[in-house]
Amino acid sequence: MTSFDERRLGRSGAAFAAASAAGRAALVGYLPVGFPDVPTSVEAMVALTEGTDGTGCDVVEIGIPYTDPVMDGVAIQRAGTAALERGVHTRDVFPAVSAVAATGTPALVMTYWNLIERYGVRAFARDFAAAGGAGLITPDLTPDEADEWCAASDEYDLDRIFLVAPSSTDERLATTVRACRGWVYATAVMGVTGARTETSDAAPRLVSRIRTLGAGLPVGVGLGVSNGDQAACVGATADGVIVGSALVSTLLAAEAAGTPGDLGALRSLVADLASGVRRAERA
Q: Is 72 a catalytic residue?
């Protein structure tokens, strides 16, 4: 079991630590609010915590659709575009956060920073905390540009998860990890998100680089996991396995089949992923 700095874990990092204490990686599931509509997206997020057997995600990552999602792959872009066309707003994220938090599962929001700036950084932190949110994942915000967010997250006791990549220099890696609270988001491959047939061999090396810094924070690995076997592979070395596009794809398929409220495939995939992190042979 990895030793973590409890002072920096926050609520989402504590979920990683609890999973580690149980001898496994945490499972983090992502869905965007508003697809296929707001109520169904909220129902789907709650389903992430349940799977088909009561075993689900340890942390839920809620996306806010954005008009220019430079990091998102095809599945997430399609769902996000549809949600925007159907009238989703930034404020719709708060009921979703409340619903997930009510299950006892930490709720994070993953968002492009322009949306938070337009809402008001402190105002968003206030309303997000009031809804029961645990923290933000900010893919296009770097620590050296995050003074206002760092102040607001400190004020409202929110986790702040920044991203690192295989291309990050040692200096940038150290700076980013120091700024994180909760855990560190390690992107295992370069480029946009999306389910892949194979996981990247860069992930173990990046996780190792982060751990050599002695930061005391869990490391979650994302970009590409689409099934339980891949979750087991990533979960053998990472503290958390992050899954997004594969989960969103089940909702896209359900809508294409004319049954947008059918969450059966979503629940089955969550159960498979949860089984994967539990059977991983931890390094």
A: yes
Catalytic residue among 72, 92, 127, 255: 72
pLDDT tens digits along 260-273? 999 999 999 999 99
Q: Please confirm, yes or no, whether 61 is among the known catalytic residues.
A: yes
Reduced 3-state DSSP string for 65-134: CCCCCCCCCHHHHHHHHHHHHCCCCHHHHHHHHHHHHCCCCCEEEECCHHHHHHHCHHHHHHHHHHCCCC
Token output for 27: 């499972």
Encoded amino acid at 5, one letter: D
Burial 147-184 (b: 16+ CB within 10 A, else e): eebeebbeebebbbbbbbbeebeeeebbbbbebbbbbb
Gap between the Cα atoms of 186 and 219, Å rounded: 7
DSSP code string of 39-59: HHHHHHHHHHTTTTTS---SE
CATH topology classification for 6-279: TIM Barrel (3.20.20)
Look up residue 37 and give its two tokens.
């509509």
pLDDT one-digit tens code per residue, 44-68: 999 999 988 889 999 999 999 998 7
Give the residue extent of every domain in the chain: 6-279
Q: At what angle do helices 38-48 and 93-101 cross, to 10 degrees?
A: 30
Cα 186 to chain centroid, rounded: 11
The reported pTM is 0.94
37, 61, 92, 127: which is the annotated catalytic residue? 61
